[in-house]
């Protein structure tokens, strides 16, 4: 079980805004005032359609962008206030990223051992060459590859194997927190399950915390402890993954879940999709995230709270 | 044609690719039928040969593809014997395709009205005005709002879902007999995907087009297909109606595929996965290509390729487990659950048909 006490927060995102082309006619509010916390040892799933801002959120957290406003606190430290080289280096050791495309995210001209050991070299984590090789080989074994794969080049591997190399690279610096941005969507179904199992195993063994960004809702439901639903750069709903399926309060969440194809012909024949009208988000009402039940947050205005409270007691709108 | 209900009959198709590393045996003897007005889904992982199969039907295989045998019969003609010019006539008129990525399958420098009207002008020799009028109708049919104002827009002015609607409009403007949809919704969001799939079903009901639907998403297959063919390493390993494949699968590979996809109810610490990776088709293994990843593999699997065993009139699977001499194996639990459901379904069907029979008799009396 995850400890959901305040002391166990590893990441706090507070009123994060990430705008692009600020002040120009084509200004984009990619992430527009979102707040959420991630607790040590949990997997927080971030879902939403393309353009919802989920990838931008991940990148802002790992500080690939300077936030327009708002605060990101990781392990008690404000990420925007890291000044010294030492602080920045420490932050980058603690937080790592696994990318979507296993073909584009590995340098084709580098050997696997040099790809995996890059972080080890930068952080001086190896005593000597022999130690470096051993660490790399151990990592390859951990992610289910062979020790002797270390002197090969990325093109010699399949998509699933490359994604394992990407995971080994992220693990090399012994991080606490890993952002996985669509880590399995480029892989085949039979390989997806392998990689998900590997991520779960590593989490158990190393007490890792994941921010898992994806659009495949059934996989997100399976891997995540809690799920945040994003739309148009805003966080609409946050709840445990069981709760969000049992009581999808926001119309958008219900609509999104009802659109997921299920490998069951009878279910599919009876499918009813819940429609969603996005204009309700732009009616000018003042909305903010409200904790409507323990650990269940919903973006709502004052007058909507009773409606959502009532919904909590009703059976799920989703098809059985 | 062997069967009057078929629009397409593929027999013993073998396709190799000549590469520097050697000959890749991409399609290793496959046969299947496509019936009029049905949707046949072909599922399998990348490299299993799904796309090569449909590209052969379209006559769009790469230069280094060698047809090693077989026939593709369409209206009593073998498409494999057609010249390139003859195929140009068939493609876009009788057989059309929707590709995965709408951004790369549309011409970014051509107005969409022209792109939709082009097949009419080329194949039917239609005059510009008439073709554009039909293109406009087609745009309305696939649900593009303000079609009249948008007919002179360029692809980049549309969202991903709208672009895929345009691609569908181009494919269907000539009312083709066969529509090939190669992962048509993989690049789209789930909500948009649901809209596009509904649109395809709706249009199919209107035009009675036969669809070959290629995808790796079994959820999409469950919603779209009448029949399903499962491909592995260049071969079809199991085929049947959508209910037979999802509720009564017989091939261990189909079991693995169904199990490795979590549903909304899946929990537990480990997802059942298929170990290993598909074989290298430069040198396909002797016997059953799935044997190395198959926990139910028998000794004979490594020696001899399994033939198709009949499960029902519409359902066949190529696995030695169905041989009467094979030991009884217990499929994974979720598959047993599915089979229980199937037993229930078929009982209901039998009861229903019995009921109908009695009613008919009563009427006769």
From TrEMBL, chain A:
GO terms for cellular component: plasma membrane. Keywords: ATP-binding, Nucleotide-binding, Peptide transport, Protein transport, Transport. Residues 11-257 form the ABC transporter domain. GO terms for biological process: peptide transport; protein transport; transmembrane transport. The keyword DNA-binding does not apply. Coiled coil: none annotated. One of its GO terms (molecular function) is ATP binding. It is a peripheral membrane protein. SUPFAM superfamilies: P-loop containing nucleoside triphosphate hydrolases. It is found in: Cell membrane. It holds the Pfam family ABC_tran. It comes from the Bacteria. Belongs to the ABC transporter superfamily. This is Oligopeptide ABC transporter, ATP-binding protein OppF. It comes from Lentilactobacillus diolivorans DSM 14421. The lineage of its organism: Bacteria, Bacillati, Bacillota, Bacilli, Lactobacillales.
From TrEMBL, chain B:
GO terms for molecular function: ATP binding; ATP hydrolysis activity. It comes from the Bacteria. One of its GO terms (biological process) is peptide transport. It is a peripheral membrane protein. Transmembrane segments: none annotated. Residues 10-258 form the ABC transporter domain. CDD domains: ABC_NikE_OppD_transporters (cd03257). Its main location: membrane. Keywords: ATP-binding, Cell membrane, Membrane, Nucleotide-binding, Transport. NCBIfam families: oligo_HPY (TIGR01727). This is ABC superfamily ATP binding cassette transporter, ABC protein. The lineage of its organism: Bacteria, Bacillati, Bacillota, Bacilli, Lactobacillales.
């Amino acid at each position: 079980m995850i400890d959901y006490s305040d002391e166990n927060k590893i990441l706090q995102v507070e009123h994060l805004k990430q705008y692009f082309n600020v002040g120009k006619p084509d200004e984009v509010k990619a992430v527009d005032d979102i707040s959420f916390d991630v607790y040590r040892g949990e997997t927080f799933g971030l879902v939403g359609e393309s353009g919802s801002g989920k990838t931008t959120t991940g990148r802002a957290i790992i500080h690939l962008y300077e936030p327009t406003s708002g605060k990101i606190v990781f392990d008690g430290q404000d990420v925007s206030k890291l000044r010294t080289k030492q602080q920045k280096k420490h932050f980058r050791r603690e937080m790592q990223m696994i990318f979507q495309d296993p073909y584009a995210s590995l340098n084709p001209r580098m050997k696997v051992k040099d790809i995996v050991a890059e972080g080890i070299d930068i952080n001086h984590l190896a005593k000597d060459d022999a130690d470096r090789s051993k660490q790399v080989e151990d990592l390859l074994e951990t992610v289910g590859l062979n020790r002797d794969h270390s002197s090969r080049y990325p093109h010699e591997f399949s998509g699933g194997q490359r994604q394992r190399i990407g995971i080994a690279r992220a693990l090399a610096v012994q991080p606490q927190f890993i952002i996985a941005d669509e880590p399995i969507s480029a892989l085949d179904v039979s390989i997806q399950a392998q990689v998900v199992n590997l991520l779960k195993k590593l989490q158990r063994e190393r007490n890792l915390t994941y921010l898992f960004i994806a659009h495949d809702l059934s996989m997100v439901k399976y891997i995540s402890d809690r799920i945040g639903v994003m739309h148009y750069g805003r966080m609409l709903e946050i709840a445990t993954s069981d709760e969000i399926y049992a009581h999808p309060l926001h119309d958008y969440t219900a609509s999104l879940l009802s659109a997921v194809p299920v490998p069951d012909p009878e279910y599919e024949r009876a499918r009813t999709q819940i429609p969603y009208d996005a204009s309700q988000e732009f009616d000018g009402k003042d909305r903010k995230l409200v904790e409507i039940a323990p650990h269940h947050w919903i973006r709502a205005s004052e007058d909507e709270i009773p409606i959502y409270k009532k919904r909590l007691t009703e059976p799920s709108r989703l098809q059985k | 044609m062997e069967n009057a209900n078929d629009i397409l009959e593929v027999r013993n198709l073998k396709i190799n690719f000549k590469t520097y590393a050697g000959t890749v045996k991409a399609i290793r003897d496959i046969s299947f039928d496509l019936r009029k007005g049905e949707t046949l889904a072909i599922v399998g992982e990348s490299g299993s040969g799904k796309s090569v199969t449909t590209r052969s039907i379209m006559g769009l295989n790469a230069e280094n593809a060698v047809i090693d045998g077989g026939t593709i019969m369409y209206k009593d003609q073998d498409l494999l014997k057609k010249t390139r010019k003859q195929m140009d006539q068939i493609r876009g008129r009788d057989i059309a395709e929707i590709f995965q990525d709408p951004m790369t399958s549309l011409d970014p420098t051509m107005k969409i009205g022209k792109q939709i009207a082009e097949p009419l002008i080329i194949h039917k020799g239609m005059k510009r005005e008439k073709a554009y009028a039909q293109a406009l109708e087609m745009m309305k049919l696939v649900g593009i709002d303000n079609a009249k104002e948008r007919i002179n827009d360029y692809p980049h002015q549309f969202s991903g879902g709208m672009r895929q609607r345009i691609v569908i409009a181009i494919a269907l403007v000539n009312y083709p007999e066969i529509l090939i949809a190669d992962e048509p919704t993989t690049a789209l969001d789930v909500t948009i995907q649901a809209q596009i799939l509904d649109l395809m079903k709706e249009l199919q009901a209107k035009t009675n087009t036969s669809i070959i639907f290629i995808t790796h998403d079994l959820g999409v297959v469950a919603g779209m297909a009448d029949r399903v063919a499962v491909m592995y390493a260049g071969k079809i390993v199991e085929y049947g109606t959508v209910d037979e494949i999802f509720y009564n699968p017989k091939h261990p590979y189909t079991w693995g595929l169904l199990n490795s996809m979590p549903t909304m109810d899946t929990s537990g610490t480990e997802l059942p996965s298929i170990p290993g990776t598909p074989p290298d088709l430069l040198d396909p293994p002797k016997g059953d290509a799935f044997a190395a990843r198959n926990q139910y593999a028998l000794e004979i699997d490594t020696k001899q390729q399994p033939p198709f065993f009949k499960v029902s009139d519409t359902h066949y699977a190529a696995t030695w487990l169905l041989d009467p001499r094979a030991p009884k194996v217990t499929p994974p639990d979720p598959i047993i659950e599915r089979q229980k459901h199937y037993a229930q379904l078929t009982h209901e069907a039998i009861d229903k048909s019995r009921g109908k029979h009695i009613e008919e008799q009563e009427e006769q009396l």
